[in-house]
Design brief:
Elements: H1 2-7, H2 9-22, H3 26-30, H4 34-42, H5 51-64, H6 70-81, H7 95-107, H8 118-126
């Protein structure tokens, strides 16, 4: 399990989903029963770290705004790798990410702007050390 989880983020997400389903915790997610889910996933000490409250807070966040953009999230990660500071790698094109994009573009004479598009993604991927950009685990 550990070696599989080390392969990629996608492997981690699939493993977590399988664990949730195998333990029957998916029914708690469907009912938004955060304490029941947290108890089953994190154990009886879940309340000490307020996992139920954190789950509820994130569920409300995702229900009230668009889902994260995976291209933006990848660009944020790659900008971090390049030494720029896009803020949290969360998939949202906020002010800090826009500044990091503009800084990268200016520093590399890659045009102007703050947009996160496929062209920028290709440019950032091309800068990775040989082989990493083609590794399927990088893309999830």
């Amino acid at each position: 399990m550990v070696s599989e989880f080390c392969r990629s983020e996608n492997s981690q997400l699939i493993g977590m989903a399988r664990f949730i389903r195998a333990r029957g915790l998916d029914k708690h997610l469907r009912r938004s029963a955060w304490a029941d889910f947290a108890r089953g996933y994190n154990g009886p000490a879940y309340a000490m770290n307020r996992y139920d409250a954190k789950l509820e807070q994130q569920a409300l966040r995702f229900a009230s705004q668009p889902m994260p953009n995976l291209t933006v999230r990848s660009i944020q990660l790659l900008l971090s790798y390049e030494g720029f500071v896009p803020g949290p790698v969360d998939g949202y094109l906020g002010a800090q990410t826009k500044r990091a994009i503009a800084g990268f573009r200016a520093a590399n004479r890659f045009g102007e702007g703050e947009g996160a598009d496929e062209k920028l993604m290709r440019e950032l991927l091309a800068r990775l050390p040989s082989g990493e950009a083609n590794d399927p685990s990088f893309h999830g």
